[in-house]
Amino acid sequence: MITSNLRKNYLRILKEKANSKLLRHPWRQRRRMLQTRTKQACESFLKPVGSPIYKYSDVGYISQYTFWWMTPVLSRAEKNGRLTEGDIPKLPSQDHPERLYERLRQILSTRKKISGWFLFVTVIWSIQPWLCLSCVVNCWLFLVCMMVDPLILQYLLDGENSLRTNLLFVAGLGVSMLVRTTTVETSYFASVRAMNNARSALVQALYQNALYLPAKCEPDFDVGKLTNLVATDADKFAKVEWIVFFMGQCSWAVISLPVSIYFVYRLVGTAAVVGTVVMVVQTGLMVVVWKRIEPLNNRVQECRDARSRLMTDLIKTIKRVKLSMTHAAWRGKVSTKRTEELSLLGKARYLSACNEFLGCVGTAAVPVSIFSYYTLVEGKSLTPAVAFATLGWISQLQWTLQELPWIFDLWATINPSCKRLADFFTKVNSSVGQDGVAISRAAGSATVQRESKQMSGVAPRSAGGSLRGEVAVRAGGADLGYELAEGKQKVVLANLNLSLNRGDLAIVHGPIGIGKSTLLKAISLAQKPLSGQLTTSGSRAYVGQKPFLISGTIRDNIVFGARMDEKRYKSAIFMSCLEKDILSFRLGDSTCVGKSGVQLSGGQKARVALARAVYADMDVYILDDVLSAVDANTGRHIWEHCIKPLASSSPSRGRVRKTVVLATHQIQYASMPETSITISLNKPGGDAAATVADVVRRSSATTASRISSAWREGEEKAMGVILKHPAATTTKSTNGNNNNNNSKESK
Description:
The protein is built from 25 helices and 10 strands. It has helices at about 1-25, 25-45, 60-65, 70-80, 95-110, 115-125, 130-155, 165-210, 225-235, 235-240, 245-270, 270-315, 320-325, 325-375, 385-400, 405-430, 430-435, 515-525, 555-560, 565-575, 580-585, 600-615, 630-650, 705-715, 740-745, and strands at about 455-460, 470-485, 490-500, 505-510, 530-535, 540-545, 620-625, 660-665, 675-680, 690-695.
């Protein structure tokens, strides 16, 4: 036993030494090096095979056609049991929504009237021509291979070829099938990419136009209709992902149909005419059905708009509905609209099914009619060579023609959506000259930029990066208000004459409902004056009474997509008095605020919106009653550490003075030494519009009492005093009629 164990150990040692000597041989090292280099070359040719973090545009052609680029993603999913955002390949630069939207904006902004067909061609071809061209070319390669197959099959079944020639024909059929498979999948993938890109561009364009919607378009496009445009009409582009591929088929049909009919005629003679007649009849029937589907889809969209408007009204008044016990009546209204919509939708679906049935019947009717006429009428013998070659050409014909029901159905589905979207963009573009608004405005544009009325956010920074002159806000004879139906106007604030310099801290006050928010929206350029002029120089940040929060973390809501600057971020949190609140959360600033900030209190929402504006570092800050949602101590902190520093200095980005306009009911801040100008709004009485009663200098000892008494008088005529900074000795009038009174008061 001991001897056998020693022998085994000795043999094992000898074997290990022999292997180690072999590994040291130069020829083995060269072979291993060659294998390594060959593997690396294959990996680079089929790249990527390593980490899934790459761009699709960087992969090789073989990887694109064989979808080898998906292997690392699938391997990572199998290994980890899930996929994270970092495991997904990065989008190519040509597929980025911002780039697609910018191209769409440039094209649509040059046209006053936009048709549905023009919009369809724009979002499919004009903004992404290379992707669509790739889809069409691959589709053509697929159809070319389908056209070659019957020729190869005919020569293969001829029976007069040698074995070697037949083997070459069989190999050709195999190669043709391989090319067909790869090209059709690549073409379909490109079609899916193109339609999803179209949806992304349209959704972003709709979102931008909803934020900057002209006043004259608001009655035509309420919340329900805008929601349907995004969720239904724009989303349909992603649901008809085959349409670009079908366009390639239709373009190829111009060449393939005459060629296919010619070869079928060579094989079966007059029977080819019979088959062509059957295909024409089939196509005519499908066109008739398609024309009945399109009006139904239009009516379905109208019913959806009506139901959405009804649901919007119901949600807005849900408390009153419950208190008045009228929910049964509302349920009946909603059910009626939904029943009408389902009825029309069912008719459209039945007609679509009928169209598909005609396509299936035509697929079998064409070869049956050809072979029946060939054998029964002409009395000819149907050989395998003729039968299989004819079926190949019929397949080529039907591959183009049998997709006609799908093309008609898809176009009948998407055409109403294209018309509705085109109507929206046309009305927005037609209001450019009247409302000062286009689809979008680039930063630094001289045209008025509009902000959303419901969101607190920031406007694009001007091209210069700061205020170019001393005047930040200037208004001359401006009437502020709203446009009503039938061309009527509601003037809220009349004859506004105002001038604010850079570094001014202005307090706007007045009774509830007098028009303070309207004035601030006009200063932020979120609302265009009905008449007169109003300009705001430099970039601006607007914090409304109803803060806008996204469903993300506190950090996401403050940074809001801007570049992260840790020092500026901490400063914004301190200035808005959010430090203690963030520390009280278990996850800190990574706490999710929920939909519309449901996890936060009203004061916390207001301070998060204020922190977002501070972090944006704008030139003009418009704050709409941000102090009303916080307690006295927090309000004092915001005044001392946020509002005062904004108007005095801002070391970031080299700016030293900001313009701050604050609307508030807390008139004690009007007597603060930092307040430059106090703007008092007054309403004469009745249905008359409000006016700017006073623009008062803070330095007077009786300023606070004057403001309070003027506010209490309400309907009495205001003093009309305009005073500037404490160091100023002259006055500036807001009304031409009060120049003399203003001069006396200043003295």
